[in-house]
Amino acid sequence: MAQLTTDAYSPKEIAGRIAAVAQSKGALDVFRLLVLAVLAGVFIGFGANFFTMVVHETGLALGLTKLIGGFVFSLGLILVVLAGAELFTGNMLMVMGFVDGAIGAPRLLRSWSLAYIGNFAGSLLLVVLVFWSRQWAINGAAVGAKALLIANAKVNLTFAEGFTRGILANALVCLAVWLCFGARSVTDKIHAIIFPITAFVAAGFEHSVANMYFVPLGIALKSDPSVLTAAEAMAGGTVDLAQLTWAGFVVRNLVPVTLGNMVGGGLLVGIVYWSIYLREFSFRSIGKLAGIAFRLVFFVNPRTLSPRKISANLSGLRAVAKKRKGSRPVPRDLTTLVDEDED
């Protein structure tokens, strides 16, 4: 009879569970995957909407305002994890299942692509509903003004700022998901989510799916005179909205932030933990593995952004990840120095 316990899963067990879940995620049919992805976009949008409402006029110091905002934004990932949804940024951890051989490159790319499309669709759906609800007109359009200023700040980041903030944001998001895989109860999962998500929001890092709600809402509101007037009063002067366009959103924010999210979640969390707990190979292999992973993001020639090229790089990623004879073993569990037999 299996022993019942309330203790959290160990890091080694978490790694194995994530690799196994990647296989089930990759097996989802297109309809279920898209619907779950749309839900994730809506859920993250709810967190972003909650954030905007709470922080638009707190009267508190900046740090406390950001702390409270990060806390309420946690609603988004809580809904994704507990209600069930497919979030592109969280699914970066599926790379653990890929390099472990549980899922192939085509299914991995299909899952990421459909999750991204569905997340965007869900975010835009919520933007339309919020816009029609006129919730943004609350408090003399101050809520809408705050939404406008948030969106405008995001499209005025440099590529480097958006990229690095994206790395940091999704490292924390994927760590929150990682911790959830170690939890055994709903309460544990909520607690595991709150601190990493609060940290990334309070620090001002960038999350691509959240921005799919924030920026389109700002674009929708920028032509409303009452919102613009309230925004100028809130900002203490004229607000330059020249970059707040769909082109500005995609080029100046969504692309760099998405690439950063991929590195932060897939490489800094997924590959790092996989290399510690699920495989044994040399430090030379680690270097080659990191090089291939970076090439998945840093394409010098845009023409190489083809499914065939990406699939080839992913195949190389898995090949390097395989165990090599004569390599120095790495303990699969850092709590012990005793090597374990491979399963």
Structure write-up:
The chain has 343 residues and is mostly helical. It has a single domain, classed as Glycerol uptake facilitator protein. The chain has helices at 11-26, 30-55, 62-73, 75-84, 95-99, 105-133, 138-155, 159-181, 186-202, 208-221, 225-235, 246-277, 283-295, 307-321. The two termini are 22 Å apart. Mean pLDDT is 86; it is low at 299-303 and 324-343.
Count the domains: 1
Radius of gyration: 21 Å
The overall pLDDT average reads 86
For the report, how would you describe the main beta sheet?
Answer: none
Can you identify the CATH superfamily?
A: Glycerol uptake facilitator protein
Q: Which residues sit in consecutive blocks of at least 5 with pLDDT less than 50?
A: 299-303, 324-343
Percent of residues in β-strands? under 5%
Broad shape: globular
Helix and strand succession? HHHHHHHHHHHHHH
What's the number of extended β-strand segments? 0
Short description:
About 70% of the residues lie in helices and about 0% in strands.
Keyword list:
globular; Glycerol uptake facilitator protein; single chain; 343 residues; disordered C terminus; 14 helices
Give a topology summary.
Elements: H1 11-26, H2 30-55, H3 62-73, H4 75-84, H5 95-99, H6 105-133, H7 138-155, H8 159-181, H9 186-202, H10 208-221, H11 225-235, H12 246-277, H13 283-295, H14 307-321
